[in-house]
Design a protein that fits this description.
single chain, 293 residues, alpha+beta, four-stranded mixed sheet, four-stranded antiparallel sheet, 10 helices, elongated
Length: 293
């Protein structure tokens, strides 16, 4: 009796952090040139869990992530004579406040959504009103409906704000093409994975995690294939450092993108390889002779 039957497709993908890798591979004919799998599976290191432990979320796990650029145009002038200018800084500031109402007043309270203005650049001198202001936004959601609601709302508020302040021309609004779609962990597949992981690593080392509003381009594969998919988390923190962080006054753990994040490589890799392998074997288990009969 063979241990497994089927085809295992391993994807070594670049450019995950900038949201371009999965898209580029799909556009290059990934699942036309190679077999189309029945399941999609991935893991991601987790800085808030000790090495050797696993985390999971059922259902929505990671968010749609969009990057939006908005440029407001004014009419420059002297800071002592603002009435002779059209101030794009005030215009942009009004927009920053107004755009927060998309989440608080337009999106249903039960639907996760985030709109953050991460960059606001305008002007060069204390007493000079500039000609324009450039803002950069990150927009997070789970469902396609909420994503469209947020992006349409940003465009509408930007245009209306520009008109309200009598800008000399409409704003430029750019929604960057390399968005990452949300990751949805199939509940049934997740339940199977949790049972397998618990049988090998122990119940205490497999923990349910809150969904994240972070982005991960693995979501493109499940969407493209239309198959059950799962992205789970692999603890990577040094266990001693993790325990120390739990004590009163303990130093907080560094996050994934912190310069201080130093994964415990050996136990992390060991648990990663074992967990991926046992779950692959689970879904590739050949039917029993009785089932074939």
């Amino acid at each position: 009796q063979p241990l497994w039957r089927g085809t295992l497709v391993l994807i070594a993908q670049p450019a995950e952090e900038v949201g371009k890798g999965a898209r580029a591979m799909l556009e290059d004919g990934l699942f036309k040139r190679f077999p189309r799998p029945d399941y999609a599976l991935a893991l991601h290191v987790e800085s808030s869990l000790p090495a050797g432990t696993l985390g999971y979320s059922s259902g929505w796990a990671m968010a749609n992530v969009d990057s939006v650029d908005v440029t407001f145009f004014g009419r420059g002038g002297h800071g002592a004579r603002p009435h002779q200018a059209v101030d794009p800084i005030v215009m942009g500031s009004s927009f920053v406040l107004a755009v927060q109402t998309l989440v608080s007043r337009r999106v249903a309270p039960q639907a996760p959504a985030v709109v953050t203005v991460g960059s606001f650049h305008a002007g060069t001198k204390h007493n000079v009103i500039p000609d324009e202001a450039h803002l950069q936004l990150t927009v997070r959601s789970y469902s396609d409906e909420v994503r469209r609601q947020l992006l349409d709302g940003i465009s509408q508020l930007a245009r209306d704000t520009s008109e309200t302040f009598q800008a000399p021309k409409p704003p430029e609004i750019g929604i960057r093409d390399e968005y990452t779609p949300a990751v949805y962990n199939d509940p049934a597949f997740t339940e199977t994975a949790v049972e397998v992981f618990q049988s090998v690593f122990g119940d205490e080392n497999v923990t349910e995690r809150d969904p994240s509003m972070g982005g991960e381009d693995f979501g493109r594969y499940g969407r493209e294939l239309g198959v059950p998919s799962l992205l789970y988390r692999m603890g990577a923190q040094d266990p001693r450092q993790y325990k120390a962080s739990l004590k009163p006054g303990g130093e907080p753990l560094p996050s994934l993108h912190s310069s201080r994040f130093a994964p415990a490589a050996e136990p992390t890799l060991d648990a990663a390889v074992r967990s991926l392998s046992i779950l692959a074997l689970e879904v590739l288990t050949p039917p029993s002779p009785e089932a074939v009969d």
